[in-house]
Amino acid sequence: MELLGQSYKNVKSKFLELDHFLEVDDCGFTSYKFGLGIYVSNSESYASIVEGVIVFKKRIL
Length: 61
Fold this sequence. Notes:
The protein is an alpha+beta fold. Helices cover 18% and strands 25% of the residues. A four-stranded antiparallel sheet has the order 1-2-3-4, with helices on one face.
């Protein structure tokens, strides 16, 4: 799944369906289930696009 440059709202919606423990804040979200974080400069803006992705070792929940 391509994430960079995609609509933040669409990406967040897809991950909310897959990870009910998604941690959302002003700058994006973190999924410990999938071991990734998504960064946007303003998560409240309807037009926000994904600007950064971090990948880390996932946690077993």
